[in-house]
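Kindly review this protein for my students:
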Amino acid sequence: MAGPPPPPPPFSFGNGTFEVCMALPPKINSVGIWENQTSPSVILTYSLPLLELQMLLIFTVTHLVYGILKPLGITLFASQMFAGMIMGPAVLGKIESFRDIFIRNELVLQVIDTTAGFGFCIFSFLMGVKMDARLALKTTRRAVVIGIVSLLCPLLVSIIVQEIYKTPNQSERITIEYLVGVVTQSVTHFSVVAWLLGELNILNSELGRLALSAAAVSDLSNIFLYKCFTLAGYWKMSPSLAVGWAGATIFYLFLLFCVFRPWMFWVIRTTPEGRPVKGVYVVIIMMLAFAYGVFTHWLDRSPLLGAFLVGLAVPDGPPLGSTMVEKFDGLANGVFLVIYVTTSTMRVNPTKMLADLSRVRFTCILVIATFLAKFISCLIASCWSRIPIRDSLAFSLIMSSKGIVELSYFSSYKDSEVLSDETFSMLTLVVLVNATIIPILVKYLYDPVSRKYASYQQRNIMHLKPNSELRILACVHRPEHVSALVDVLNITYPTKESPNVVYALHLIELVGRDSPVFIAHQKHKNLVVNSYHHIVAFNQYEKNNWETVTVNAFTAISPSKLMHEDVCTLALDKEVSFILLPFHRKWSVDGSIEDDNNVIRNMNCNVLDRAPCSTGILVDRRRKLFMSSTSTYSVGMIFLGGKDDREALTLAKRIARDPKVKLTVIHLIADEDSGNFIDWDGMLDAEVLKDIKQNDNSHGCDVKYIVLVSKHGQQASRIVQSIVGDYDLIIVGRRYGADSVQTMGLSDWSEFPELGVIGDLLVSPDLNCRISVLVVQQQDFIDS
């Protein structure tokens, strides 16, 4: 899969002897600039102060470059490479004082390079942890075809181009250099694709999931081919050497996946639910990663490969994989990866690269031919899969993207002296150009947000046919959300003639893996996830309402900033009429605020902006709605007018069909309105209020209609304060951005715009009550 750079081929170059002089014991810590007041720069003769200065310069330059290039759409990785070019021999490297800091002698380079290599070893381990290897084994036929085609086509084309332009006197080293370029340009690496999709916020889009699956197949195929060619190379040199290498590799993998991986599952089983993994286990796993790195180095393999495979053996996701990522991801990505990318790019020397123009020309031809072969093959395969042409172009660019994995390949090969300075510089510049242009083009071609969730029909409660089924998507984040949502579902009064179809979606934040997961529990009944208790609760709700309620349970594991896409996509696919969301604030039993979850709030706001149907946010104030089969409860509905209020009133009418419900509609009017409706919205309001005004109890509904006058927001606030204690649940329309005389001035004090002015007033701590609130927004837009 997208692991660290593979080992160099069984050839060696540069077997010369180097003589290095160093002082023992080495000078590490200084006593400060006052050690030699006449020459404070003496502290730079110590390795630790010098390393700190190098890191400070790297972070300063990279952040300045990123701040300048970010508005242009340049990614952080490309900005770090640009910073490395600036700090290299072409720009700042020409300044003597700067050269003294970074390239004064070999020992200076060794310290910073060792630090970067150590950090990238941790990063390689985390790449393995976050990778879901099963994705390549349970993917669709379309992803398998694209993954294999995207690997074989550019590989064959590049080999043909190399044979065409091969000169009779071409050295073996140059041939191997070109072979390295061919392989790295042909493979699509899972980690690079996952990073690009995450950078563009399309990780769990339909196109993103397909790209991840195809990249996983391509990566797995690449490893298989590489191992076969390596084994063949060793067999050609010595059959006994090949057998020994194969035996050591099998023993290595057996020990890792048949001994240590089961032990990791034991760690997961012995960790109490909701509790963190013990620190001693985290330390053991990290030490195991470094030990395996030493072991693979002893086998003449890159130590990064050992760390990566240990990470691959760690079960992804919570609790173990997420713990490893939480503890080390910030350090690896925020510190060591920046140093690694920058110092690797600093080794690019354009002057040496231009010394041989014929090689530059041939490398450009080879790279362009490989890129076009990969791009065109992916484009044809995706169009064959009936993907729209614009999305196919974006998908082909994603599959052709290059990044940190390719850069690590080239750095490793240069350290092994497989690549010359010229070839390394050219191939690194290819990665830089690719990482700069492709994200901009993909962002231009593929916008999953714009009109993605626009529906071609009315999907709301108000436009449902009489006695038609009501499809509701109930979203759950935490266990305490379940009971409140089930209470509201219970009072919607499903019957055999008008049943409820409930889609229960448990949303889990993606931590400890790269690929998002979406599980339909009807198809994967034996799959064990953290949604077990939520599924049981909704299944019990279905049993309590047999033949009137159907429940389908789902679990979505995705990044917090992309959770709304899972919600909107499921609502669109299942033709849902109403999405029910929990409020982000949690109250304790005594009514005090216990927790504010901004992840839930951001998701709710994104759903309100993009939902393909009507949406409701339930504010649970710890007041039980559904006490028993004989108890009654009061529901209030505050009506001001507008489409959101009409949708909320339609839902309130459906609830009022329950004989145990007493519904009161409080109609707030301005003094000058006097109940006369003169505009189109007013006429629609009058129509939806007609049967409420007539107090039509023909269906057994207990409905009361009250008209109250509010001339301004302060008066509306007093009205709300006077009625909140009379009800168990109050339903209101969101009415976001709708100005009215009745609520004038309240929006200036609104804390939660997603609830509207009345909803925000009802959840204010100033009311000091435990009433629950349901804020309703009608479907926002329809594709015409």
User: Anything to note?
Assistant: Residues 1-18 have pLDDT under 50 and may be disordered. The longest helix spans residues 206-237. The radius of gyration is 32 Å. The first strand starts at residue 470 and ends at 476.
